[in-house]
Amino acid sequence: MIRNPGVLSEKLGLSFNDPELFKIALTHRSAGVNNNERLEFLGDSILGYVIAQQLYGRFPAASEGSLSRLRASLVNETSLAGLARKHKLGDYLLLGQGEMKSGGYDRDSILSDALEAIMGAIFKDQGIAACQHWIEWLFEDKLHDLPLDSDGQKDPKTRLQELMQAKRLDLPEYILLSMGGSAHEQTFTVQCAVQLIADTTTGVGISRKKAEQQAAEQMLELLAQAA
Amino acid sequence: MIRNPGVLSEKLGLSFNDPELFKIALTHRSAGVNNNERLEFLGDSILGYVIAQQLYGRFPAASEGSLSRLRASLVNETSLAGLARKHKLGDYLLLGQGEMKSGGYDRDSILSDALEAIMGAIFKDQGIAACQHWIEWLFEDKLHDLPLDSDGQKDPKTRLQELMQAKRLDLPEYILLSMGGSAHEQTFTVQCAVQLIADTTTGVGISRKKAEQQAAEQMLELLAQAA
Q1: Which of residues 27-56 of A touch B (CB under 8 A)?
Q2: Which residue of B has its CA nearest to A37?
């Protein structure tokens, strides 16, 4: 059963002046001539531009090589298919009989293309600013979790681990001290300990990972002061 | 001798709020740490987006494959280096001693990267609309002269000619009615006549070719109305 595209667009925070564009974005070439291939071409280029701009701004000290690697880690078929699955795009795809039977609604390439086609549809319907805004919303977590900090350095956990490995010491230990808040606003508190010094550091964040990064960062600062 | 970047930016119709950005765009990595690599990363992505958008709009019937091929024919190192040479970018590049001696100012990769870096600099200095406008100016002739594609919409002159051939009539006639304006802002007016109807159409453009295309387009519309 094909679900109503209007439900999906609402879930995605989208409101189309021309809902037909959104429907085309969800139409795989197996379902007809008026499919999402052209919109995908357009969306793919916009996505490349928006992510490049975001990375350029977020990592002012990163080299061109780092920026390219970061973009490749964000914009690839697997990553896009993951985002599409998160928003259950597969339930709303229009596929031909053959693709439907062979599980096309869960194929990485089809999901990824449809997601890019949605970007093209937003651009056609509402222009570049709206499209950029939506892409930034879609990639918010991924952009936030990138393994580099604002100086173009590796993230604190990685740097702390490498520091310990270089000194042939045990790897840092992270202990979850507490978890609180409501389901949508959880707070994690994590303690970091290393073999090098007795002091520990504490990090707080909206995810365990973020709390660990903060604890690692503070440990790096502590070690820098102690050195 | 390195020439004043201000002269080049003026020739390119550019006026930077921050002229330093333009200088960085012309600085190859061999000349120092503060070079054009990051701006090139940014410019490359904007160029891809702007050209994709142009092709999408200009070829409403072209398949995704055709659009991709057309873009690849416009955006590649050789094509960009050609545009850079046309505007004598090489004379203004900042290169290290080694690159200077080995002719880096005329190397395709260096010219192409610098051109993309200029796009990145315009974007940083003036935003996406100004950058898009400049890219469209830079690529105007190339976009206009695009090789015809079997899936894409052919240009009006070709379509009109094919229409006449299909009807076994004489080929359309184009007559230059007038030419005016100063050397840099010439205007051509061309009349188009076909054997099929007595009415003629008139096109105006900044080149004879463009005026002919416009006249052909209007003739096609006239014929469609008459049909």
Answers
A1: 37-38, 40-42, 44-46, 48-49, 51-53, 56
A2: B64
Predicted confidence (pLDDT) at residue A163 exceeds the cutoff of 70: yes
| Annotation marks residue A199 as catalytic | no
User: Looking at chain A, which runs of residues are DSSP E strands?
Assistant: 173-180, 187-193, 201-205
Q: pLDDT band for position B2 (50/70/90)?
A: low
**B159 phi, psi to nearest 5 deg:** -65, -40
Burial class (CB in 10 A: 0-12, 13-18, 19+), A26: buried
State whether B49 and A53 contact (CB < 8 Å).
Answer: no
Tokens of A112: 């990824």
Asked, colleague to colleague, whether A5-144 and A156-226 share their fold, the answer is no
| Residue B151, pLDDT score | 46
Instruction: Tell me whether residues B46 and A46 touch, CB distance under 8 A.
Output: no
Q: Are the C-beta atoms of A118 and A130 separated by less than 8 Å?
A: no
The model's pTM is 0.70
Is residue B116 part of the annotated active site? The answer reads yes
Selected residue of B27, B28, B35, B42 to mutate for chain A interface (largest A Cβ count, 10 A):
B42
Distance, CA of B218 to chain centre: 23
Please determine, for residue B176, whether its predicted confidence score (pLDDT) is greater than 90. yes
- B14 pLDDT band (50/70/90 cuts)? very high
CATH C-level class of B156-226: alpha beta
Chain A residue with Cα closest to B47: A49
Report the distance separating Cα B177 and Cα B217, nearest Å. 17
For residue B184, what pLDDT is reported? Answer: 67
Whether the predicted pLDDT of B117 surpasses 70: yes
| Residue range A31-41: mean pLDDT, rounded | 94
What phi, psi does A184 have (nearest 5°)? -90, -10
The shortest CB-CB distance from A46 to any of B38, B49, B62 is to: B49
Is domain B5-144 given the CATH code 2.40.10.410 in the classification? no
Scored b (16 or more CB within 10 A) or e, B178-202 reads eeeeeeeeeebbbbbbbebeeebbe
Secondary structure class of A202 (helix, strand, coil): strand
Q: Around A76, how many Cα atoms within 13 Å sit in the side-chain half-sphere?
A: 9
pLDDT at B152: 53
**Taking the CA of residue A104 as centre, how many other CA atoms within 13 Å lie in the half-sphere pointing to its CB?**
19
A86's tokens: 């998160």
The interface predicted TM-score of the complex, written ipTM, equals 0.70
Residues with Cβ < 8 Å from A172, sequence gap 6 or more? A157, A160, A161, A164, A192, A193, A194, A216, A219
Per domain, the residue ranges of chain A are 5-144, 156-226
